[in-house]
Design goal:
Length: about 425
């Protein structure tokens, strides 16, 4: 009897210990999860500190720009929320009361590549600025540097550009100097603010391609931060567990057609523009149905991409890849060839239209109408994983124009049939 009682007490004890250990493990996992979440996600407090930091620099006369006053003085720009910016740029969502004249308020995005303290500063402190002539020479030097930045972006001759500084800043540089009380200081502040912007690839690209509708509109700048139009992203159109299929086929097929047009346009900019980071989150969608490129940090014009492949040692093709821009390893010379083996269209099909699971598409073109299911699946396979007869062993391939044409026709037909 005593033995039975002892055994029961021991079992109870064991059970309590197990429960304790279980609770401890769950609690530790929860704490670790919370730590990881906090580490990865932005907070409102930190985001507001970014704006305050910028405004502190503005009030100390360290930075300037067309929107500093609206952000820091009249407070026409109001912080709303932030995105998960830990691994990438600082991206804050705001509303702006004065960005579009006559419109009460628009939703905008404030972007900046790095922390304020790490912004690229123009170091020309060796130049004296005490006379008007010296200030003019300084501005000429900045003009030269900014022209070079554009030149490096696209290898396009900017030497004849009439007012490169105002073009790059989106604000009249010379007017700013004229209206300032202390011209000597204004030259430095304006130049370094502009420089911290033009050192950001996305900003420079947006200015360079400003007249294309696929580039988000820039409303203005403050120091190294620039404010652009806010659109929804195609990330909203990805399949999410438990979310179901909130967007109709017709809507998704129409977006796919716009994306195909956009990708074709990128081949006709004088030099091909390669998008090396293609994913739904990097495309914007305006209310009027236009698609935009909201993240051009990994977009490269042809010559720069080839330069990237140049002199790269390799033992396999993957060593030559620049994100989604696939390279080719010449295993004899152990050097990457100077060519991209896939193209934007292949990447679009793979990463946006098909999504994570090739055998069961979860991307934008998932769940098509029954009548086109088989044909669409075949075309998406051909486009995302092209098999082209070639001498090259294991080469990655371009999506073929013929496949894309058939895909366009099929999507168009499916939209008309549903109308
Ligand atoms: N113009 C914009 N409109 C709406 N959302 C944007 C815009 N720019 C960025 N975002 C949001 O912020 C995220 C991160 O911005 P992005 O420019 O892609 O930076 P990163 O280099 O960190 O990927 C985007 O995936 C998108 O969700
Ligand atoms: Mg991005």
């Amino acid at each position: 009897m005593a033995l039975l009682r002892w055994m029961r007490r021991r079992a109870k004890c064991c059970c309590m210990t197990c429960c304790g250990v279980f609770v401890f493990i769950i609690a530790s996992l929860a704490l670790f999860g919370r730590y990881l979440y906090k580490k990865e996600h932005c907070t409102d407090v930190e985001s507001k500190q970014i704006i305050e930091g910028l405004c502190d620099l503005y009030s100390q006369g360290e930075v300037t720009g067309s929107l500093c006053s609206a952000l820091c003085e009249s407070r026409d720009l109001h912080y709303q929320t932030c995105t998960n910016y830990r691994k990438g740029k600082k991206v804050l969502f705001l509303t702006c009361d004065s960005c579009i004249p006559g419109k009460t308020s628009v939703s905008v995005v404030l972007k900046m590549k790095t922390d304020l303290s790490e912004r690229d500063q123009l170091d020309m402190s060796h130049l004296e600025l005490d006379t008007e002539q010296r200030q003019k020479d300084y501005v000429r030097e900045v003009e030269f540097l900014v022209k070079n930045s554009f030149m490096f972006l696209r290898h396009k001759d900017m030497s004849k550009h009439k007012d490169i500084l105002s073009f790059a800043w989106g604000w009249n540089f010379h007017e700013y100097l004229k209206n300032s009380n202390n011209r000597q200081k204004a030259v430095v502040v304006a130049s370094s603010s502009l420089w911290s912007l033009t050192e950001q690839q996305e900003y420079l690209m947006s200015r360079d391609l400003y007249n294309y509708s696929f580039i988000p509109r820039i409303y203005g700048t403050c120091g190294p931060a620039y404010v652009v139009e806010n659109t929804q992203t195609l990330g909203n159109y990805e399949f999410e567990m438990f979310k179901g299929w909130p967007h109709s086929w017709k809507e998704r097929a129409a977006i796919a057609l716009k994306l195909i047009h956009l990708i074709k346009d990128l081949d006709n900019l004088g030099q091909k523009l390669h998008l090396c980071d293609i994913k739904p989150d990097n495309f914007g969608l305006r209310d009027n149905g236009e698609v935009t490129l909201i993240d051009t940090d990994c977009a490269m014009f042809e010559r720069n991409l080839l330069e990237q492949f140049n002199h790269t040692n390799c033992t396999k093709h993957d060593d030559c890849d620049f994100f989604d821009c696939r390279g080719f390893c010449d295993t004899k010379t152990k050097q990457c060839l100077l060519e991209r083996t896939n193209n934007n269209m292949q990447s679009l099909c793979e990463d946006v239209f098909v999504g994570y699971f090739p055998k069961m598409p979860t991307g934008l073109l998932r769940d098509p109408p029954g009548a086109i299911k088989v044909e669409l699946f075949k075309l998406l396979q051909e486009c995302s994983n092209p098999v082209v007869e070639t001498e090259r062993h294991n080469a990655r391939q371009h999506a073929q124009p013929n496949t894309v044409k058939k895909l366009q026709e099929l999507l168009l037909r499916s939209i008309v049939d549903l109308s």
